[in-house]
From TrEMBL:
Coiled coil: none
Tree of life domain: Bacteria
Organism of derivation: Dyella monticola
Entry protein name: Calcineurin-like phosphoesterase domain-containing protein
Pfam families hit by this protein: Metallophos (PF00149)
Database matches in Gene3D superfamilies: 3.60.21.10
Stored InterPro entries: Calcineurin-like_PHP, Metallo-depent_PP-like, Pantetheine_PDE
CDD domains: MPP_superfamily (cd00838)
């Protein structure tokens, strides 16, 4: 059994949808796929994606990304309703959102959001970042929303007991130094909405030694303080020169 990972499929782009459609039907039938969020903001496309990956892999594990929870183009009251619909679609196709164990290997999903532990949001970010318009979280600010998600994470699950290898995954970044030094200053304006340090605390408390994440569209594999962090975003078509646009094996 092998474990592969990909994130940020963004199937609203035809080229990305074509990439997914062309996944081999029989090459990965004994393998696991980690799908680390941002499949599509359209529920119908997300549902179709679940159907496609479920037929290719023995097991698919998923956490929603921020785009998956947009409601500005869906007939839904708020993003909590969208979250319920997304999870229902996943479960309908056998896509797992819980802890997976195979012998001594455990794969653990970690939900999250951003709480500005990576920096404060300035006026530019509040205007430019689409989540502020596309998501609706009534009664919650971003810090409370992050706690809502992270408090539900299974970091003390009995499934972890005795595991020899723990792989965790999230859509959002668990630490901002995963962003490489080469990133230009103009692009660092979005750092406050890339994730939360709460995820780093949780993955280490669980004993994870490999963590898969998405969201940043900056693909890399780096080991920090004993944990190997892997980002493998498909990304937007115009990012093909720096995203691999292929599955990456993580186990």
């Amino acid at each position: 059994m092998r474990v592969f990972a990909v994130s940020d499929l963004h199937l609203d782009y035809a080229a990305n949808h074509e990439w997914l459609e062309q996944l081999p039907r029989h090459e990965y039938n004994d393998d696991v796929l980690i799908l680390a969020g941002d499949v599509s903001d359209r529920l119908s496309r997300l549902d179709h994606a679940f159907k496609l990956v479920a037929r290719c892999f023995s097991t698919v594990l998923y956490v929603p990304g921020n785009h998956d929870l947009w409601v500005h183009r869906e007939p839904m009251q708020n993003s909590f309703e969208k979250l319920d619909a997304v999870l229902a679609a996943a479960h309908e196709h056998g896509i797992r959102t819980d802890v997976f164990r195979n012998d001594e290997l455990v794969i653990m999903p970690l939900l999250g959001w951003y709480d500005y532990s990576f920096g404060a949001a300035d006026d530019y970010l509040k205007t430019a970042w689409a989540d502020y318009r596309a998501c609706r979280w009534p009664g919650y600010d971003d810090a409370a929303l992050t706690r809502f998600f992270t408090d539900s994470n299974p970091v003390h699950s009995p499934m972890l007991t005795g595991a020899q290898r723990i792989i965790s995954f999230s859509h959002f970044l668990p630490r901002i130094d995963l962003m490489p030094e080469r990133i230009p200053d103009k692009h660092r304006k979005i750092y406050p909405v890339l994730g939360t340090t709460a995820l780093e605390t949780q993955l280490r408390a669980a004993g994870s030694t490999t963590h898969v994440y998405g969201h940043s569209h900056v693909n890399r594999r780096v080991t920090m303080d004993g944990v190997t962090y892997i980002n493998n975003a498909l990304g937007y078509p115009n990012e093909a020169h720096f995203t691999g646009r292929q599955l990456v094996q993580v186990y």
